[in-house]
Write a sequence for this structure.
């Protein structure tokens, strides 16, 4: 399948031009179907708390979806706290909460009690549509270990990307 009406990246215009052409031809099946951005810091937290939610995202049975939050800066008022961000989801049309299924949690240690000594987290995961359904995704923040008040710092985004048909696992455990 070819992506029509796109500029060519033939061999004369880009190294490995033919490989790029083939890669771009496959991108048409990968579309951002939902996006949310929070331009402000989260409220301070010591327990898991929701930060941003995307609702009413239609998904299809047997399709794969990449759900991700690009790197988010974290902060705590106490050095060496472990701070994380999680992606929770539902596929039954209800709003995702911190009690919903967890897709992925990413945790980082804050090296110092100042904004410039924080860390970054980037939760992501792949979800296969269990049926034609309505997806809700929640980005939450949590302090995993430590005693400080923590924040996720602006700007934070969540993307849901349609990633094509689900395929069988052909990996070999070693």
């Amino acid at each position: 399948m070819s992506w029509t009406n796109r500029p060519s990246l033939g061999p004369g215009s880009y190294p490995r031009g033919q490989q790029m052409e083939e890669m771009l031809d496959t991108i048409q099946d990968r579309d951002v179907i939902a996006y949310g951005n929070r331009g402000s810091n989260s409220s301070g937290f010591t327990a898991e708390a929701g930060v941003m939610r995307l609702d009413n995202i239609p998904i299809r049975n047997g399709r794969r979806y990449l759900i991700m939050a690009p790197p988010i800066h974290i902060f705590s008022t106490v050095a060496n706290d472990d701070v994380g961000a999680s992606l929770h989801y539902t596929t039954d049309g209800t709003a995702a909460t911190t009690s919903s299924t967890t897709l992925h949690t990413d945790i980082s240690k804050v090296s110092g009690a100042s904004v410039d000594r924080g860390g970054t987290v980037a939760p992501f995961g792949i979800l296969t549509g269990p049926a034609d359904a309505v997806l809700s995704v929640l980005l939450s923040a949590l302090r995993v270990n430590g005693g400080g008040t923590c924040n996720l710092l602006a700007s934070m985004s969540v993307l849901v990307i349609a990633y094509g048909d689900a395929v069988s696992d052909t990996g070999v455990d070693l």
